[in-house]
Amino acid sequence: MEKGTAGGVRIVEREGVYGVLAGDGRFSPVYRVPEEADPPRIPRWVSDLGGTEWDSCVAFVRHAERPAHFLSDREGIGSTDLTPRGREDSRLLGSLLKGYDLALASSPVSRCVSTCAGVAEGYGRDIPVDMRQEIGGFGTAMYLDGYAGFFYREPGTTAVLGNLGGRPIPGWHPLAECVRRMMDIIVPYLSREGTLTLCVSHDLFVAHLAGGTTGRFPLDRWIGYLDGVLVCRRGEEVRIVWDGTGTPYTGPFGTADISPSNAPRDLALPASGDIPEVRDFPRDGIAWAGAPSDGKRLLIDSRGYFRHVCDDGYLVCGQTYDWAGDFIDGVAPVALEGVGATFITDFGDLLHNRWFREVRNYRGGAAAVRDRGGWFHVDRGGEPLYPERYDSVTDLEDGVCLCTRDGVTVERGPASGKPF
């Protein structure tokens, strides 16, 4: 069953496996449709916390889920608060930390403070929050003078990867200085014997801390909501625990290894058109480039993974995907093996952090998606437009779609009170 094309790559599905179909008939698998989408809601550091011996510990984490941003509204990102799902996940995290003597510290940005409030609610008692600008604002990793004018010209994920790899970001301190300044904030919390201090910050700060203390941050991985790094003290030793691995902290690294972690895949690809210039990315690292769509181009890198680049040469996001489609109206479908499929914005954000088995592009404000029950449509917030599930659905056209179940096709319009 042909699933469509993405900038010239013919993507087909064979027995629950998406793959690239070459002109010679060779099928290269890229994404196996899971039985059920299973994105992690409990961050890895929570299990690392229980498996690590410490006298005191700081969990330096990203805030919970916030609304997505687009290039067109990026100026409002500093004031964004949490989504309802973000508040729910914050409460869930608090309930998981009930066995610890918990203290809270936060960036003063509202989504970080709200994350702390949700954690305290889930924990079951009021906990004072030590709000400090240095935990996730100007004065530590970044400095205001010289950065504000550059803000958002380059997506934050790719800017941080540049800093980790040795290319300074205007307005940010070099990596080693970023880490020194963050550790100056973190280390005093380690004097609290037997206490877990949760420091809620932002992904750009957490990525700097992870890469700058361990010397490694793969460019095909990013910091998800509530994802974070543990800084643990045992006696006089301080260790960094990230992604299940503990590393003694002996001082900051000047650069970090940002080479990808995904195993290479051998894809049979059609001939590529012109290969665009991509900032801080080697030309021989791109195996194939699609045609422009919505100001972006789909790329397949030399390891066989999908990503997007903007017309100005900046990668949309540092994260790579097992499969991705073209951008339309600022949104593109993406998928990760073993997790599921969802959508990203042209700012590199998850559109709504709702995951499905399969997805198709948004058209007319709605996207066709499939969960375990079948196909249906969701709005831009990821919410179903109707409760039924079908064997197949068409894309929305003039507010109408065709839905088929058990051989019977019906025409659907907007659900009552919830227009497409």
Which architecture of the largest domain does the CATH hierarchy give at level 2? Answer: 3-Layer(aba) Sandwich
- Most strands sheet: 7 strands, mixed
**Residue runs with pLDDT of under 50 for 5 or more positions:** 145-149, 416-420
Structural class by helix and strand composition: alpha+beta
Query: What is the strand content?
Result: 25-35%
Query: In the CATH scheme, what's the topology name of the largest domain?
Result: Rossmann fold
Query: What would CATH call the homologous superfamily of the largest domain?
Result: Phosphoglycerate mutase-like
Multimeric state of these chains? single chain
Number of helices: 7
Lateral arrangement of strands in the main beta sheet: 7-6-8-5-9-10-11
